[in-house]
């Protein structure tokens, strides 16, 4: 069933988006709780501040390595 496959795919995509956004919000909250600016976290991690911003906004999914660096 093509329609069933499309429905399952759409559901999985929505779950991924939700996870990425939740992860980004969590990273942002932890950064703010430590009173770190995006620029400071970028300097501390070696990541570009715009990339960190995209992670926090759920636009991009961070790699495991980037999560390790940010943590």
Secondary structure layout:
Elements: H1 2-33, H2 38-45, H3 49-56, H4 64-70
Total beta-strand segments? 0
H and E string? HHHH
Quaternary state of this entry equals single chain
- Per DSSP, what share of the residues sits in E-state strands of 2 or more residues? under 5%
Which short descriptors sum up this protein?
71 residues, elongated, mainly alpha, single chain
Describe this structure as you would to a colleague:
The protein is an all-alpha fold and 71 residues long. Helices cover 77% and strands 0% of the residues. The chain has helices at residues 2-33, 38-45, 49-56, 64-70. It is elongated, with a radius of gyration of 15 Å.
Question: Summed up, what is this model?
Answer:
This protein is mostly helical and 71 residues long.
